[in-house]
Write a structure and sequence with these properties.
262 residues, alpha+beta, Chondroitinase Ac, Chain A, domain 3, five-stranded antiparallel sheet, 5 helices, 8 strands, 16% strand, Polycystin
């Protein structure tokens, strides 16, 4: 599949549908299938970006193709997590499978960078709405692509649609972008939430024990990681199947303040 040459819209949806179906059961997706699938998904998003320039595709066509490709991407992430977790639980710290998991996950995230281009650069310029975003999500992986004003100095709260319970609060978009966004370039962010850990291949990933969130800044065709902040940001995310009892004190009795001694 990784060597399939895409010529048109039907080729994109056909390839994406095939990957979506063959990766639906993560325990049966081999390391090579993960890698080949991720390469094909990145290629499919690349072709969709090419075809959607100058509104040669309708919004509906872009949304349908995106849904197929994105679902396949979520399946690859999940397969990587499941297979890597098996390795880690067996005490394996390095293996061909873990390397394939890493490669597939990395390439799939690169595919999602291309997804930003499709909506921010190709689709959103047709709209004047100042608060414009696209939500793409499955039951376990959620992405919001939001257009931003590089000069905006107001506080921003980023959330995603679907069954999500995470957010990121930042002082402003301009504090994220810094000098990375030049005047006239389309700017925005991608906020991602995964309800499982696609980085399970990493030896210390079990220490995360929470949903995984990601925030990236987009300026034109370039993607910048969020770093070098002069002010802190707030991140709220759910712990991984954990009770809050281990994280907080539970009070079962009360007393007047004057009667409390330390």
């Amino acid at each position: 599949m990784a060597n399939v040459e895409l010529q048109d819209y039907d080729g994109i949806t056909g390839l994406a549908t095939t990957i979506m179906m063959v990766t639906a059961f993560p325990e049966y997706v081999s390391g090579n299938a993960q890698v080949n699938g991720s390469i094909s998904l990145k290629h499919a998003f690349g072709k969709l970006r090419e075809l959607s320039v100058n509104y040669n595709l309708t919004v509906e066509e872009v949304n349908i193709a995106t849904a197929y490709i994105f679902t396949g991407a979520a399946h690859v992430f999940k397969a990587s997590e499941v297979k890597a977790l098996w390795e880690q639980e067996d005490g394996v710290g390095f293996s061909d499978m873990l390397e394939k998991n890493r490669e597939a996950t990395t390439t799939t995230f690169q595919a999602l960078d291309v997804l930003d281009d499709i909506y921010l650069i190709n689709m959103m310029p047709a709209y004047d709405d100042g608060d414009l975003f696209a939500d793409i999500f499955t039951s376990k992986v959620h992405v919001r692509i939001k257009r931003e004003d590089p000069a905006d100095s107001s506080e921003q709260l980023y959330t995603v649609a679907g069954a999500s319970d995470s957010f990121v609060r930042v002082p402003s978009f301009s504090s994220l972008a810094g000098d990375g966004c030049l005047g006239g370039e389309t700017a925005g962010v991608q906020f991602l939430e995964s309800n499982f850990n696609p980085f399970e291949y990493s030896n210390n990933s079990r220490l995360v024990e929470s949903d995984v969130v990601g925030l990236a800044v987009k300026c034109g065709n370039s993607t910048f990681p969020v770093s070098g902040l002069s002010e802190p940001i707030d991140i709220l995310t759910r712990r991984e199947n954990k009770s809050l009892d281990e994280m907080m004190s539970i009070f079962t009795a009360s007393s007047r303040l004057g009667d409390i001694s330390v």
